[in-house]
Design goal:
Number of strands: 16
Number of helices: 2
Shape: globular
Order of helices and strands: HEHEEEEEEEEEEEEEEE
Largest sheet: 5 strands, antiparallel
Helix content: 10-25%
Structural class: mainly beta
Strand content: over 45%
Distance between the termini: 76 Å
Length: 230
């Protein structure tokens, strides 16, 4: 009898989870990523192949990046008013490239207004996966439509200092993103979700970010600079 109760509970729970979204109320989203470096899974060449490739270019050479900071996994999340709706992840080989060598991905998301789409690129930083490219955009998604959404992928966040109000602020990234602010001596003076804090003149600040819904941090300080000195 106890086993039957457990099975019933599991069935009811799965019904709740799968019943959260109705596929018929989705919209298709195409995220245009520009020409950020994407790590592709390609076969290692033999010595003869390498010599031959000096004279003949590979047909897909321009879609393969040799950059050590190439995106190996791309994470996407859709939010509305701070609530997470859905997430998707693509490895480098799943990221398509169009005729102009711009990268893009397509996925389905719950339709609605003011949908914030957060995109984070992840790369291998000496054995540790870190975020190196990120961006977001807020759009309206109509049911059954295909939407081209341009995401500006950045490697740092912009910040500004109001020396009159003594307030340091930075670009909001959308979604559940934690900001960590350190002074030049690496002392943490703020860790939280707001995008502004009280600050001081003539002080160096470093801003780090953590994308909590993906469980990854930025590979270094994503923004650094000195506040106004009167």
């Amino acid at each position: 009898m106890r086993n039957l109760k457990v099975i019933a509970i599991l069935f009811f729970s799965s019904a709740l989870i799968t019943g959260c979204y109705d596929d018929s109320k989705n919209a298709t989203v195409r995220i245009n990523l520009g020409n950020i470096p994407i790590a592709k899974n390609i076969e290692k060449k033999s010595f003869i192949d390498k010599v031959f490739s000096v004279f003949v270019k590979d047909a897909y050479a321009q879609t393969v990046s040799d950059s050590p900071y190439s995106v190996e996994t791309l994470h996407l999340a859709v939010y509305s008013e701070g609530k997470l709706f859905t997430t998707e992840s693509f490895n480098g080989s799943e990221i398509a490239v169009d005729g102009s060598y711009n990268s893009y991905v397509k996925f389905d998301a719950p339709a609605g207004v003011n949908r914030t789409i957060l995109v984070v690129g992840e790369f291998n930083d000496d054995g540790t996966m870190k975020a190196n490219y990120f961006g977001s955009n807020t759009v309206d998604l109509a049911v059954g439509t295909t939407n081209d959404v341009r995401i500006i992928m950045n490697t740092e966040i912009g910040f500004k200092y109001d020396h009159i109000k003594k307030v340091l602020s930075w670009d909001y990234q959308g979604g559940k993103v934690k900001y960590i602010v350190k002074e030049s001596n690496e002392q943490i003076i703020y860790s939280g979700y707001n995008n502004s804090i009280p600050a001081q003149d003539c002080t160096y600040y470093n801003i780090y970010i953590t994308f909590e819904d993906f469980g990854i941090d930025s590979n270094s300080n994503t923004s650094t600079g000195q506040t106004y000195c009167p």
